[in-house]
């Protein structure tokens, strides 16, 4: 699951930008900048299997429409974090001012962009959950199928012999009742 990396790095970017804004320590600014860049790289890596899944979905289907919205929110988040990273990188280029202690690293715009990026990532995550749980995209089907679950009633449990569908007959034991 590659998606954990960009999500964690995006959140780390927001948290470290807030810590820098409160404390003013340039260390946290650099941590925010590098976690932002790492999040961008990992989001691009995670997009490859997502794109493969998206193009394999049937055209004009509900899963494909959900997948396109999921991709759109991820692209929006990636764009917002890329703009934020460029702004952070340009600010960090003023190393002489940082070395002398006379610096002013304005993080307002990158922080706002990063917060919007995390919100976009949350929307994409909701849609990704829908793809997996509702549309079963990227889920390997079980060998028994969806509708074949043991049908156990309270009366059968009391007698120690669960009643199972006939599709299980002969596969597991000879104590199965029909």
Order of helices and strands: HHHHHH
Quick one: biggest sheet? none
Structural class: mainly alpha
DSSP E strands, number: 0
Provide the domain count: 2
Approximately what portion of the residues adopt beta-strand conformation? under 5%
With helices defined by DSSP (H or I, 4 residues minimum), what is the helix count?
6
Unreliable stretches, pLDDT < 50, 5 or more residues? Answer: 151-159, 168-178
Shape: elongated
Mean pLDDT: 83
- Radius of gyration based on Cα positions: 25 Å
Distance between the termini: 42 Å
Helix share of residues?
A: 55-70%
In short:
The protein is mostly helical. It has helices at residues 4-23, 26-56, 62-92, 95-100, 108-133, 154-158.
Architecture blueprint of SSEs:
Layout lengths: L3 H20 L2 H31 L5 H31 L2 H6 L7 H26 L20 H5 L20
What does this structure look like?
The chain has 178 residues and is mainly α. It folds into two domains: 130 residues; 32 residues, no CATH class. 67% of the residues lie in helices and 0% in strands. The longest helix is centred in the N-terminal third of the chain and has 31 residues. It is elongated. The relative contact order is 0.12. The C terminus is likely disordered.
């Amino acid at each position: 699951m590659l998606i954990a990396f960009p999500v964690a790095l995006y959140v780390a970017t927001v948290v470290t930008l807030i810590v820098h804004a409160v404390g003013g320590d340039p260390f946290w600014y650099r941590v925010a900048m590098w976690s932002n860049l790492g999040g961008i790289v990992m989001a691009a890596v995670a997009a490859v299997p997502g794109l493969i899944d998206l193009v394999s979905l049937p055209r004009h289907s509900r899963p494909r429409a959900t997948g396109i919205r999921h991709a759109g929110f991820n692209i929006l988040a990636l764009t917002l974090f890329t703009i934020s990273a460029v702004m952070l990188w340009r600010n960090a280029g003023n190393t002489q001012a940082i070395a002398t202690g006379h610096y002013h690293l304005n993080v307002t715009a990158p922080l706002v962009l990063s917060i919007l990026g995390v919100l976009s990532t949350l929307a994409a995550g909701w849609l990704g959950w829908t793809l997996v749980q509702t549309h079963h995209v990227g889920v390997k089907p079980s060998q028994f199928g969806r509708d074949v679950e043991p049908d156990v009633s309270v009366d059968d449990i009391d007698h120690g012999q669960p009643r199972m569908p006939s599709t299980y007959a002969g596969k597991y034991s000879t104590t199965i009742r029909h």
